[in-house]
Specification:
It is a single chain. Helix content is about 40%, strand content about 0%. By secondary structure, the protein is mostly helical. The chain has a domain at about 50-115 and about 150-179: Aspartate Aminotransferase, domain 1. α4 packs parallel to α7. It is globular. The protein starts with a helix and ends in a 7-residue tail after the last helix.
Length: about 180
């Protein structure tokens, strides 16, 4: 049963993460995607709001990016580096100077009932990546591994909810928000 769940979750223990059984999810085995393809989706009918959903996620992503830029300019954090208009808005993350700062920020947001999680291990560092990847067990460096992102989820949020998260992040860094 557990292996079937992992196969269904594209080789990850994502379902265990959402049940609170693990603190982050990672790739642990082979898996697959059982979702219909984009071509099948196109045959099934016209857009049922998906375009609006995408635009809404992008609006939240862009709002975060613009509002938090002064904190990046002050050296408090780093924002996603995405060419203009190319972010899909799936997730918004910030990089902190250290794991300790990231954990403190995550805890501060949690105190205000704001979910900001680092929820997965990079593929090359995961059990499946080490077992099946081209390096098979060799350490592979990657940018930011020691400073993983705190990631308030931008989709499904109203502008005032994004602003509440932004205000709390500014307060955490002890910076005044001017806009």
């Amino acid at each position: 049963m557990q292996r079937a769940e992992i196969l269904r979750e594209k080789g990850t223990n994502r379902a265990q993460f959402f049940r609170g059984q693990v603190d982050k999810y990672t790739w642990v085995d082979v898996g697959s995607s059982f979702l219909p393809s984009e071509l099948i989706g196109a045959f099934l009918g016209p857009d049922r709001g998906g375009g609006n959903h995408h635009r809404h996620r992008r609006a939240s992503f862009d709002r975060y990016l613009h509002a938090l830029r002064p904190l990046q300019d002050a050296g408090c954090l780093r924002l996603p580096q995405v060419p203009e208009g190319l972010a899909n808005g799936h997730i918004f993350y910030i990089l902190t100077e250290s794991l300790a700062v990231r954990e403190a920020l995550t805890a501060a947001l949690k105190e205000d009932n704001i979910s900001a999680v680092f929820h997965y291990v990079p593929l090359h560092a995961s059990p499946a990546g080490r077992r099946f990847g081209p390096g098979r067990g060799r350490a592979a460096g990657h940018h930011g591994h020691g400073r993983p992102p705190a990631a308030p989820a931008p989709f499904g949020m109203r502008p005032d909810e994004v602003d509440r998260v932004v205000d709390r992040i500014f307060a955490f860094f002890g910076q005044p928000r001017t806009a």
